[in-house]
């Protein structure tokens, strides 16, 4: 049905917009910025915080512009005396219940409430400060996320994120009135409930109520310790996000500058998670082909298909809680981060002649769930904690600022070797559909001896932000050893964001769909939209980061994981062949059934 | 099958498996068992395929859906202004003394819990208290003791 146009005036300027547009959106079109706290472009309208109130001519009370649709003839004032006074009082009231120890807050300088307080020149004396009389909980049990209720303004961005976007619902609104709080089930710590540590709530929290647990000081300590060798790895999506936190516009690829910065920070080896992303493709691709062979040729009914990717630790925790009967379907491959960690303290340490206990392994991730993953008890196959500290993109940006490095002026430098070379197939791990594309580029070639039949190796059907994507690849003229796959159609599906993952898993569990291979990423857009990426993250920014990732891929001299020379060297010198005994010991893992809440 | 599973299944038969069955289930559990335990709340969430945190949020929103252990008889003294002005503080003090517990507490034998509640609509006959579903208006300290003694004897 065609939409009607609606005419209204904002601050006496006429504008025509489509029906259904909110007053807030219409004002933005005229370049009037109205402050918001609970509103977020990724989330549904809430109207909780009230700072976006505006005056509507003829209306008795002020209206929340984020929740008010335009109507014909409406006259809106976004900055009248009445509006300014009300907004100031609203901010002051929010602050009266907010722990304003801003100077020692992790979000100091990045807090949306703080910047509004500054903008409106608030007076904290007009309202009684209630913070001191209330009992607040600070939950820092999780290795990923700290939840500090004394800083919560109950805007419920986190609840909407956790419920609608991620379908996890670890957080809900409990109690009412002055007792209202954002709570887990029975107010349990975040690390003992269904929370997947995806950090999407952290990425959206306007204050310091939900933040990542930072390990910046521990990493500085390691760097400053002359006894240890600090090895760092950088995830694919960090290089297309980091710039945003250091003054660059979204969509900038800063790989070379990032490497230069890491070297200047004092890391002994600056290596790439992309290397183990390539390794993942060989391990996971081989695992998939082996499963297909066992299922199709040996008619082994115990083989679980579709096989599902296991790179995303938020997704792993989700399936452990919610679809534990599908755990056998998960690839046993560790994530690239953990493969890297296991190799850093074995293969790499040996190569360098370092003692494994003198290696500190640090990873830079777009992700808060990676912090949890690194702490899983099964991630110690090197004999030590495989990854010692995980920093988010934001924490790395903080370290770069702390070190006084002018990021934009840095030269472009190259990763160290070995474990620093990667292919274009690895960098696209950072976007939804990327693991699938990388796997197909390799698996198709293993089976047929030919490149995937897509122009420039770009498997377009698996790209983009559709919630669930499907593609089918026909395997023809297979090599003799893969003859059993002749004419077979490899059915693949991809989901990103856990709400989409939930839909797809429900369909798999009900048997209404049948696939061979499924890629799931916990975060919307994949890792590029990860919970540890710069704030803000939204659809527009995710799209720019995605374009940057595919640009990075297109510019790589090697585009296929199995052609990465360092991977071939690793197998030759250390692992033997994909899925070998040694590979299984170091690079594969198992999963745990968990409670539904 | 535990009691609570019976309650859940009965209510689901009546009200279905959709979200609207949540309140009748929670109300029935509280009616039968005085309060809802953590395990029971998790079972309710699972039965309706709802998030446990969400179900906890719903239960804690309503004052009468208790999620902490309560006595067999829950005494709720109205704390709103009319009852306040007609002497609810004295009633509470008397009850605390008679039962040997403070406001918000439950007797060790799990027989009584003493709480305050918002307006019950008996402003014209305050102070007023509720013992489970029974209303006792126009209280005096003596009257309150006599009423509680009856329950102690039960």
Describe this structure in words.
The complex is a heterodimer of chains A (597) and B (154). The longest helix of chain A has 24 residues, at 273-296. Chain A contains 18 helices and 18 strands. In chain A, helix 11 links the parallel strand 14 (359-365) and strand 15 (389-392). Chain A has helices at 23-29, 81-96, 112-119, 157-165, 200-204, 216-224, 255-265, 273-296, 313-322, 336-352, 369-374, 393-402, 424-427, 434-448, 498-510, 539-554, 565-575, 581-587, and strands spanning 5-10, 13-18, 53-56, 63-64, 75-77, 138-139, 145-148, 172-174, 181-183, 210-212, 229-234, 269-272, 307-308, 359-365, 389-392, 468-474, 489-496, 517-521. By secondary structure, chain A is α/β, with parallel strands linked by helices. With 154 residues, chain B is α+β, with helices and mostly antiparallel strands. A four-stranded mixed sheet of chain B has the order 2-1-3-4, covered by helices on one side. Chain B is elongated and about 50 Å long. The model of chain B has no long low-confidence stretch (mean pLDDT 94). Chains A and B meet through strand 8 of A and helix 3 and helix 4 of B.
Task: Write a brief structural summary.
The complex is a heterodimer of chains A (597) and B (154). Chain A has 597 residues and is of the alpha/beta class. Chain A has helices at residues 23-29, 81-96, 112-119, 157-165, 200-204, 216-224, 255-265, 273-296, 313-322, 336-352, 369-374, 393-402, 424-427, 434-448, 498-510, 539-554, 565-575, 581-587; strands at residues 5-10, 13-18, 53-56, 63-64, 75-77, 138-139, 145-148, 172-174, 181-183, 210-212, 229-234, 269-272, 307-308, 359-365, 389-392, 468-474, 489-496, 517-521.
